[in-house]
Amino acid sequence: MKIGFIGLGNMGGPMAANLAKAGHEVTGFDMADVSIEGVSMATSGAHAATGADVVITMLPNGAILRAVAKEVLPAMSAGAALVDCSTVDVDSARAVAAEAAEASLLFVDAPVSGGIGGAAGGTLTFMAGGTEDAFAKALPLFDIMGQKAVHCGAAGAGQAAKICNNMILGVTMIGTCEAFALADKLGLDRQKMFDVVSTSSGYSWTMNAYCPAPGVGPSSPADNDYKPGFAAELMLKDLRLSQQAAESADADTPMGELAQALYARFVEEEDGLGMDFSAMLPRFEKRSRD
Ligand code: NAD
Asked: Do 47 and 73 contact (CB within 8 A), yes or no?
């Protein structure tokens, strides 16, 4: 396939490289001066999109996606697909889907889970929204860049799944960290806490697979001075998107709202910037009730 790839950062770069390695003809564009193995570079987004069967975007946010879409959709040929893998707000995904449909183009919102390691290793999970035709066109590429792709529903459903998942993740991480900090103050050994909770009804992915306590459970960013992993500021971005969506859909999400407020304080006032999102545990350790 002829593929245009726009946004070749930490995630997009290795994803584009994997597509090229698999034999696709990939033309890339990024505002920054980057070079990716096997990818020929274009001078603009429109240039990268011209003549492409599929254009993939991997961009920082919804405003940038909307701006890039305005530029690239007119350059695309009828029947081609725009596949946005960025994490953006549901409204932006739906707006771009509508513009694509008007131009007789296919659109898939397909945010990913799996982080930089998953992008490099081709083991991402894609959660996709769009028509059957659009999903079918993108699926062979998801199979190269990832290990699983779930078609979640119509346009926007991929972003909806992503932010609901990450809202659960943020809330659960905070719950796990505050429970460890409480256990410390009650004199409970952390390993014993893990042994009990990881096999009891309080278990979760954050406890069992990504334990925030150093030296406890499988290896995780806590064992590496809380270097990300999944940075606290990216968790904050996703929690903000979840609350923006909750506003727009009039959904009551008090735990998500509180998780957003805690991660905002952590990132903006408490040195959490650049730390893994599990560094909430040392944050709680230092605190008392007031
Ligand atoms: P990044 O900042 O490393 O990459 C974004 C790239 O987009 C940059 O290279 C930037 O120069 C480029 N860019 C910005 N505006 C542009 C424009 N108008 N035209 C062309 N290029 C432009 O970010 P990333 O970590 O690769 O994340 C990309 C997306 O993936 C984000 O939406 C993020 O939320 C999501 N995501 C990231 C991770 C992660 O672990 N990093 C995990 C899952 C999802």
From this structure: no
Per-residue tokens: 134: 């659009």
Q: Span 107-120, mean pLDDT?
A: 94
Total-model pTM = 0.94
How many Cβ atoms sit within 10 Å of the Cβ of residue 62? 22
From the candidates 2, 21, 162, 192, which is the catalytic residue? Answer: 162
Give the Cα separation of 239 and 229 in Å (integer).
17
What distance in Å separates the CA atoms of residue 13 and residue 215, rounded to the nearest whole number? 33
Q: What are the angstrom distances between the C-alpha of 109 and each of 13, 71, 82, 209, 252? A: 19, 18, 8, 28, 25
Contact criterion met (CB below 8 Å) for 216 and 184? no
Q: Which residues pair with 271 in a beta bridge?
A: none
Sequence-distant (≥ 6) Cβ neighbours of residue 9 within 8 angstroms: 30, 32, 34, 58, 60
Instruction: Specify the residue for token string 């001066």.
Output: 33
- List, for residues 161-172, the tens digit of each pLDDT value: 999 999 999 999
Torsion over CA: 76, 78, 82, 88 (sign):
positive
Which residue among 10, 72, 244 is best mutated to probe the pocket of ligand 1, counting the most ligand atoms within 8 A of its Cβ?
10
Half-sphere exposure (CA, 13 Å, Cβ side) for 59? 26
